[in-house]
Design brief:
alpha/beta; Rossmann fold; seven-stranded parallel beta sheet; globular; binds nicotinamide-adenine-dinucleotide; binds uridine-5'-diphosphate-4-deoxy-4-fluoro-alpha-D-galactose
């Protein structure tokens, strides 16, 4: 299939391009490079043996999108492009609504004009808010606690309404839990700009000597060791979840919603200790106050995705931290 991959030079998009290429699909990458580096395309080529077509531009640019759909025979769109920093979204909500919500509406309108009717959207476990219980099933109530999460929820709702009005469309909402890890080659991985917001990139930068120590945000949660518990999923497993959705859902009209997680929860300190074992060095840390908006526990019930997509995450925690460390130690300053 010819698959338009928005945000395809980003962290999850680049790993998905590799899996698409190895499965015989043709990804076409659209990205404005606001949070990625075009060197990623070289790395994809090194790993997969083929360089995807790269079209630099913004999903909010109507003429740009129309010209892509007019000149390429696109079968399906995987839509990763978006901004994802929770703290920034609180300070700059309009930036997030413009990019994530308006950008998606612009993309769907262009698809509609071009009669491309299959879309896979990057949603997030953040749409479950603070869940009443874990593991989290797809039919749990949704809510948002910050503008980033609200932008994901708004897009989910817009897409549902649109699909209902256009019943021949297939729209798949994939709710990611916590993507971590890197390609096993060590050539691709997560390369956050500035101070990392997320746990594993921060730990990796401490391990490689770029940062002095990790701050652990709270050790008084109601969890086995008091630190926050999350469902960390290897980015290549996550990428494979998109391929499964592409294979199984593209020709099934409807709005399809799946959790992409492992079903396993790990605490912050478990992650730190696993990383220490992989990197064979200690990770200094100090306990800090809880981070505003954080929840104690969040992990998926992955059963529905497995039943419907025939997909489940197979890479274990050790692989996640080893692959992260290979990437970080080979590329201490990321793509540069
Ligand atoms: P990323 O920042 O690495 O990738 C997103 C890409 O989109 C970047 O390359 C960026 O340059 C591009 N982009 C942003 N706005 C654009 C625009 N207007 N036009 C064109 N390109 C644009 O992030 P990621 O971790 O790969 O996340 C991909 C998607 O998954 C995002 O939508 C994110 O919200 C969602 N998601 C991520 C996580 C996570 O923890 N990484 C968790 C849940 C959901
Ligand atoms: N943490 C620390 N120190 C850090 C960073 C994180 O102790 O420097 C802790 C957090 O308190 C939390 C855990 O590590 O307990 C994981 O935090 P992350 O920031 O890595 O991930 P979150 O679960 O907070 O959020 C992530 C994405 C969201 C997304 C959500 C669900 O950042 O955008 O996963 O997919 F919505």
């Amino acid at each position: 299939m010819n698959v338009l991959v928005t945000g395809g030079s980003g962290y999850i998009g680049s790993h998905t391009c590799i899996q698409l290429l190895s499965a015989g699909h043709t990804p076409i990458v659209v990205d404005n490079l606001c949070n990625s580096n075009s060197l990623v395309l070289n790395r994809i080529e090194q790993v997969a043996g083929t360089r995807p077509l790269f079209l630099k531009g913004d999903i909010r640019d109507r003429a740009f999108l129309d010209s892509i759909f007019a000149t390429h025979d696109i079968d399906s769109v995987i839509h990763f492009a978006g901004l994802k920093a929770v703290g920034e979204s609180v300070a700059l909500p309009l930036k997030y609504y413009d990019n994530n919500v308006s950008g998606t509406l612009n993309l769907v309108s262009a698809m509609d004009r071009a009669e491309v009717k299959s879309l896979i959207f990057s949603s997030s476990a953040t749409v479950y808010g603070d869940p009443a219980s874990v593991p989290i099933r797809e039919d749990f109530p949704t809510s948002a606690t910050n503008p980033y999460g609200r932008s994901k929820l708004m897009v989910e709702e817009c897409l549902r309404d649109f699909q209902q009005a256009n019943p021949d469309w297939s729209i798949t909402l994939l709710r990611y839990f916590n993507p971590v890890g890197a390609h096993e080659s060590g050539l691709l991985g997560e390369d956050p700009q500035g101070t990392p917001n997320n746990l594993l990139p921060f730990v990796a930068q401490v391990a490689v000597g770029r940062r002095e120590k990790l701050g652990v945000f709270g050790n008084d949660y109601n969890t086995p060791d008091g630190t926050g518990v999350r469902d960390y999923i290897h980015v290549v497993d996550l990428a494979d979840g998109h391929l499964a959705a592409l294979d199984k859902m593209t020709h099934q009209p409807g709005t399809h919603i799946f959790n992409l997680g492992t079903g396993q929860g790990n605490s912050v300190l478990e992650m730190v200790h696993a990383f220490e074992a992989a990197a064979k060095r200690s990770i200094p840390y100090e306990i800090k106050p809880r981070r505003a908006g954080d929840i104690a526990e969040c992990y998926a019930d992955p059963a529905y995705a497995e039943a419907q997509l025939g997909w489940k995450a197979i890479r274990d925690l050790q692989t996640m931290v080893e692959d992260t460390w290979r990437w970080q130690s080979k590329n201490p300053h990321g793509y540069c």
